[in-house]
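Lines hold sequence, tokenised fold; shown next:
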Amino acid sequence: MTENLKFRDPELTRRVAGKIKEIAPRKDTVKICHVCGTHEWAITHYGLRDLLPPSVEVIAGPGCPVCIVPASEIDEAVQLALKGIVVTCFGDVLRVPGSKMSLLDAKAEGADVRIVYGVNDATKMAKKERSSQFGFFAVGFETTTPSTAVEITSKPPSNLSFLISHRVIPPAMKMLVKMKDLNLNGFIAPGHVSTIIGLKPYEDFPGVYHMPTVVAGFEPLDLLFGIYMILKQLKEGIPRLENEYARAVHWEGNPKAIELMEEVFEVTDGNWRGLGTIPSSKLKLREKYAARDAHLRHDVKVEYGVDLQPGCRCHLVVVGKIKPTECPLFIETCTPQKPVGACMVSSEGTCRIWAKMITRKN
């Protein structure tokens, strides 16, 4: 798979891959989990798994923010749209299935649903159309949360409210560690998220769970170095928290962004699609900003929705228990053009990434 792909430094790439093979165990299998959709794209796009020895397995965790939004929260956005509220969202949210319909389906029924490239676009629309009520469907991990917080504290127009569906990554990583049938040996922590939250939130993984943890960037060499660093820790028997992505990630993260998030949001338990409730993993608006809560302003109430359609295995793909190709719907009835499961919708979804690569190869 790697033959026709160009690396920035092919010789160094081969050397690092060689070092990985030297240090990798000969008998036991090492399972390393990354928690980032962009990591999965780079690993798959550059064929990095083909460079690894059979004893080293790299699996994809719940690193796609769109994939893990539960059907009930899509249902909330749909209900908002069908009430006549102008719902704004990122493009990859549009086709995520709810329990009965997606926002795209709601749009087809006449609802005003608009794609934006950032929350600021929603603000501009609301300012221009004062007679309409607008809602911004805020989906994302810590990477995009600060931009939502900035907009909320910047006194947006009174006709704009927010449907918050932000999640935080470290609690999901703790859930993965505690899955006895997953048997993880190390984490590649998400690069983009870590530029915001820094390294401190990962301290428990080597300290409490004895799990080697490395923050890595997105170039092929970043990821290969990250894998090598984890294997080195395992061989030495000393789990540590290390930062391969030092050019962008600092121990303290982005203090201003963290301060803004803490001012606007409080942490609560949250459902993740197909995974159930993860403690302290979701954000909600603090009482101070309750007037901006679309739930309260527009009386949004839905019952718990069905996350998975019959046959869909997204809940197993998203925690790395199976590969996309092991889902019976993959490519057969679930495609990027007609997604059945949420993992096939976003460009960061594991199923979507694998499907695109298979299509390109064919």
The chain is about 35% helix and 15% strand. The first helix runs from residue 10 to 23.
